[in-house]
Design a protein that fits this description.
The protein is of the alpha+beta class and 510 residues long. 32% of the residues lie in helices and 25% in strands. It has 13 helices and 22 strands. The strands form 5 sheets. The protein has a 5-stranded mixed beta sheet, with helices on both faces. Helix 4 packs across helix 5 and helix 11 crosses helix 12. The longest helix has 20 residues. About 5% of the residues have low confidence. This is Integrase catalytic domain-containing protein.
Length: 510
């Protein structure tokens, strides 16, 4: 609520007296909107009169009333007249303890920002320091101006039909000079417009993480969603789907400024490509063969994916092209713990981990040498049933005694998603460790958007799984350790078991 809490602070005395013979400036900051007001003082004793002036201005101008005033305990805020006035007006006075400026951090930080801006502007124009008050006033004016937020400009009735949107989504980039109104940037047309009738979302900003092309494609797909039956996946916001009554399907995935699409109807392919080519300058590379370091071989039998090229590049980078291969990435029974002695070459170590992600030793490079052509094969027309395996060790981490969760999900007989991660909590039994693993896997399968990794205790996990089992969305089936495909993600395995698990994942050399 505006004026629910107001921060107040005095800055000064400044060594240089201003043109108006002032030594201090006083700031008021509304905690709700962060709008700032500044007053200039010759003496600190003027604070009380300036507060009454400020109170009349903001309360009559906004219709709201100041509820709480926060300041430090200096005398200009705690005088008898000031305190009595606050009591009469029903304003609560919060005073921070001595030597704790951080408790009045909003005002302290604002004053520092204002001074930084003032110094920069004075230095940039090589102006005398006596102009500091004018520069401070200018800095506060600039700080109070909203910039870069989302703004909806009204579309005149003459330029739209009754069923079209009344507003267009833009970005506020300034204020009119010769043209009265707000200066807005339309990211769709990439043009600047001026509008007087604007609705602002001051706390919302444009997602500049995406490229301009990405945003334009995304907005076009959203239009397609409304006009031509596309649906946006609620769990994966870059995935769009279109399903016809005759069973025809089209799936479109947006990654940066790349479009990947698949389906079962060539006519839908052609229509979609035509629409995109009309809107954007695009290149059609036909069947996808390489994406994010993954190589794809598509044939009439199915799709084979691998990282052969990337694996070869890693071996070359670390001079391991001619190393002797091994059949497992880690010796079975290997237990690693932090060492308190000895130094390592941090640059080389970080570079190796960065390239291999979780691969941290030369043995794993030797394993890659013998398996760099291995991959996953998804058979065309095969079984599309989803199934999963999940497993957990118990406290295998010798440093933190936390358990490791591993799970893998299959489409038919081939894995399509998997993970191996250390649990966030220390479990007290193997039973609890298994519950944590089960909950993580069910979350991944259900794609619950409200999931937070720092979930609640084991009872919450248990009830979550129970609800999905009762709803028959998930069927829990026990399996023997030797048939547990997720075992490969929780611990080092012997050669025979490792090869068996690897085969169960659907990995092969094509």
């Amino acid at each position: 609520m505006p004026l629910e809490l107001v921060h107040i602070d005095v800055c000064g005395p400044l060594k240089q007296i201003s043109n108006g013979q002032n030594k201090y400036f006083l700031t008021f900051i509304d905690d709700y909107s962060r709008k700032t007001w500044v007053y200039f003082l010759k003496l600190k004793s003027e604070v009380f009169e300036k507060f009454k002036e400020f109170k009349a201005l903001v309360e009559k101008g906004s219709g709201y009333h100041i509820k709480t005033l926060r300041s430090d305990q200096r005398g200009e805020y705690t005088g008898d007249q000031f305190e009595e006035f606050l009591r009469q007006q029903g304003i609560r006075h919060q005073c921070t303890p001595a030597y704790t400026p951080q408790l009045n951090g909003v005002a302290e930080r604002k004053n520092r920002t204002i001074l930084n801006m003032a110094r920069s502007m004075l230095k940039d124009k090589d102006m005398p320091k006596r102009f500091w008050a004018e520069v401070v006033q200018c800095a506060v004016y600039l700080l109070n101006r909203v910039f870069g937020c989302i703004a909806y400009a009204k579309v005149p009735e003459a330029n739209r039909t009754k069923l079209e949107d009344k507003g267009v989504k833009c970005i506020l980039v300034g204020y009119g000079d010769r043209t009265m109104g707000y200066k807005l940037y339309n990211p769709i047309t990439q043009k600047v417009i001026f509008s007087r009738d604007v609705i602002f979302e001051e706390n919302e900003s444009w997602s500049w993480d995406q490229t301009e092309a990405t945003r334009n494609i995304e907005l076009t797909l959203e239009d397609e969603e409304q006009e031509n039956g596309f649906e946006k996946c609620p769990y994966e916001h870059a995935l769009y789907m279109k399903k016809e009554t005759d069973g025809s399907q089209l799936y479109v995935c947006l990654y940066v400024d790349d479009l990947i699409f698949t389906g079962n109807n060539l006519a839908m392919f052609k229509t979609f490509k035509k629409t995109m080519f009309q809107e954007f300058e695009m290149t059609d590379i036909e069947l996808m063969a390489h994406f994010l370091g993954i190589e794809m071989t598509q044939s009439e039998e199915g799709i084979f994916i691998s990282q052969s090229r990337y694996a070869t590049e890693i071996l070359k980078k670390y001079g391991m092209e001619t190393c002797n291969p091994v059949t497992t990435p880690v010796d079975s029974g290997l237990e690693l713990k932090k060492s308190d002695t000895g130094n390592v070459d941090l640059t080389y170590f970080k570079s190796l981990v960065g390239s291999l992600r979780y691969l941290t030793s030369k043995r794993i490079l030797r394993y890659i040498k013998g398996t760099h052509s291995d991959g996953l094969f998804y058979q065309l027309g095969g079984d599309l049933n989803r199934s999963g395996y999940l497993d957990s060790d118990w406290g295998r981490d010798l440093d933190e005694r936390k358990s490791t969760t591993g799970f893998v999900f299959f489409i038919g007989d081939t894995a399509f998603t998997w993970t191996s991660t250390k649990q966030a909590i220390m479990t007290l039994s193997s039973c609890e460790a298994e519950y944590v693993a089960a909950n993580s896997a069910v979350f991944a399968l259900a794609k619950n958007p409200t999931h937070h990794e720092r979930s609640k205790h084991i009872d919450t996990r248990y009830h979550f799984i129970t609800e999905h089992v009762k709803a028959k969305e998930v069927e829990l089936v026990s399996c023997r350790t030797y048939d547990q495909a997720a075992d490969i993600f929780t611990k080092p395995l012997k050669h025979e078991v490792f090869v068996k698990m690897k085969t169960m994942l659907g990995m092969k050399n094509l």
